[in-house]
Write a structure and sequence with these properties.
Blueprint: H1 2-29, E1 35-42, E2 53-61, E3 64-69, E4 73-76, H2 78-87, E5 94-97, E6 101-110, E7 134-135, H3 141-149, E8 184-190, E9 195-196, E10 199-200, E11 204-209, E12 214-219, E13 224-226, E14 229-236, H4 243-264
Antiparallel strand pairs: 1-2, 1-5, 2-3, 3-14, 4-13, 6-14, 7-12, 8-11, 9-10, 11-12
Helix pairs in contact: 1-4
Length: 265
């Protein structure tokens, strides 16, 4: 009879432990981040840029923890957009962080990066996401941003080239990156390593099309959109649980300690 009571009590204890663990997981989970607005910035040197642009933290970019400036820079060639991103350092950008955040910046502002490599133009490799050219590529910062963070559906699945429904640029999915526009965005990565028909690619750089979500190389003198990103280690202050939550958790732990003492004496 005593054994049966202990087993029943043990089942209740297990349930309590699981519930307590889940609660702790909820409290700890608040420190995790995907896309998080950590502050804002403006251009104090120009009266045209009076609006504040959000600073958006992506903690798991393929190139490390980064912060995006929620601003689309108007059309320009690759050199123009590279110079614009670099110019955001110094006095060109006035940054204000939200309470509870601190940032250690790494390097200068730049255009989003991707991985350069040989191009395979076969029909299947354009969709499988394993290369550097085509669709479903998540090794670039913009590919990761659109596919993994914003949940965009590419026009073709990774295992076939049958068009998927619901693909394309969708404004409803852009929060908090509301200033993104449909069209090509320059990457800061030049294309250096491959040839096509024995002709070397010269003065090409990578771009990402936000409308069709494909990645390709484009001559640098073409005019595309610009977006700025910067490597950054962001520290978020751990929120202090509300008193009611602490009392509930503390009471549960005290109850568990009492139960263990009762049945182990």
């Amino acid at each position: 009879m005593i054994i049966v009571r202990m087993i029943a009590a043990g089942k209740k204890s297990i349930k309590f432990i699981l519930a307590t663990t889940a609660l702790c997981g909820v409290l700890a989970g608040s420190a995790e981040a995907t896309l998080t607005v950590i502050g804002h910035a403006n251009h104090p040197s120009s009266s045209y840029y009076l609006a504040n642009y959000d600073l958006i933290w992506d903690n798991d970019s393929p190139f490390g923890s980064v912060v995006y400036l929620n601003e689309t820079h108007g059309y320009g060639n690759w050199d123009t957009q590279t110079a614009w991103a670099t110019s955001l350092g110094g006095s060109e950008l006035n940054i204000t962080l939200n309470p509870g955040y601190s940032v250690t910046w790494g390097g200068d502002w730049r255009l989003p990066a991707t991985v350069d490599g040989p191009i395979n133009f076969s029909s299947y490799s354009l969709y499988d996401g394993n290369g550097v050219y085509g669709y479903n590529i998540r090794t670039s910062e913009l590919g990761h941003l659109f596919y993994d963070e914003l949940g965009f559906i590419p026009p073709y699945a990774s295992d076939n080239y049958i068009q998927q429904p619901g693909f394309g640029f969708n404004y409803d999915k852009l929060s908090p990156l509301v200033n993104l526009q449909p069209g090509f965005y320059w990457s800061g990565t030049e294309h250096m390593v491959s040839t096509l028909d024995e002709r070397p690619f010269q003065n090409y750089a990578w771009s990402f099309n936000s409308s069709s979500t494909d990645q390709m190389i484009i001559p640098k003198d073409w005019h595309f959109l610009g977006m700025a990103v910067r490597n950054a280690e962001v520290v978020e202050a751990v929120p202090v649980p509300e008193p009611s939550t602490m009392l509930l958790l503390g009471g549960g732990i005290a109850g568990l300690a009492f139960w263990r003492r009762k049945f182990t004496v």
